[in-house]
Amino acid sequence: MDKNEKLLIRPYLRTRSLVPENQESPIEFMNTPSIPEEYFYKRNHFPYPEIQKNAFELSIEGEVQRPMVFSLQDLLSLPSKEIAMVMECAGNKRAFFEPKVFGEQWEMGAMSQGVWKGVSLAELLKYTGVTYRVREVVFEGHDYGYRNDLNGEYRFARSLPIDKAIHPDTIIAYEYNGKPIPFKHGYPIRLIVPQWYGMASVKWLRKITLIANTFNGPFQAIDYMYYPFKDNDIGKTPVTRINVNSTILQPHDLAQLDTGIHTVFGIAWTGMGTISEVEVSLDQGVTWEKTQLYQDLNSMYGWTYWSYKWYAEKKGEYVLMARAKDTYGRMQPSNAFWNRKGYGFNAISSVRVKIE
Prior knowledge:
Elements: E1 14-17, E2 22-24, E3 58-62, E4 68-70, H1 72-77, E5 81-88, E6 111-120, H2 121-128, E7 136-147, E8 152-161, H3 162-165, E9 171-176, E10 179-180, E11 190-192, E12 205-211, H4 218-221, E13 225-226, E14 237-238, E15 245-250, E16 255-257, E17 260-269, E18 275-281, E19 289-290, E20 292-294, E21 304-312, E22 316-326, E23 349-355
Parallel strand pairs: 3-12, 16-23
Antiparallel strand pairs: 1-2, 3-4, 5-6, 6-9, 7-8, 7-12, 9-10, 9-11, 13-14, 15-17, 17-21, 18-19, 18-22, 20-21, 22-23
């Protein structure tokens, strides 16, 4: 290597499974508001589908006045909008539940953020019309596979209540960060649903069906439900909006630091309103101090950066804690709501450090 050539060191995704491919974003190294596609987390239920580019079509049918089929060129010709938003897997931070739960043991990187461009679904439905009977809208992807629990093959399909489906910011996206959506993230089009967990943003979208009843597909009625009890289904409720949450990005857990001034730095996000404050504690939650927030006022769906100057004068071991609050008054709890599938973990964020 030439003495003037610098070694380029890059972070990498952490693999949780190979087939289907599930990988975490190196979120603690991502200090940009828009995550490059190569670092965007991957969450799949089945192997990647085979899609013929030239044969792409999106059909809209069911409780509509005029069933229609749209080509990609049709979508590109319609009025578009861009949505900058957090996308978080419902299982993000599952590894931190106590007692432990089964499933991909995501830590804090099953989330990313970027800018999606596409057509508002409400705009498309102007062409098809909607009957008064519509209750939900079902979105079906090209991906499918075998489910052992049901002894059969199923496509990935999810529904939204009609009010959420026709929200102007629910879009059929064809670009991510100014480029066509990468294949592994849903090319050529995917649904984008701000403020809901990532399972709602169906990838490789092939069909939209408006229905007058409740959709009961397995990824709606079995998976992505909060089950409060280990051995029965009493009290189950659907997983929808993102919980208010935060993550300490720096310093890292179990870091060894010198005495002096350190910046405690992180992100906070929510599925309702925006982040109103983030507090940190250095004494196991006895007292809390407010942090400095850095918000993108043009992105009501993005995460908020925050920082706090810590004057570490005494040597010893410390637990640094952070909790976020949103404009709806929701605050991170001391303990996450335990549920047997491990969704929605949002307990107070913490790291342990040693001052030497």
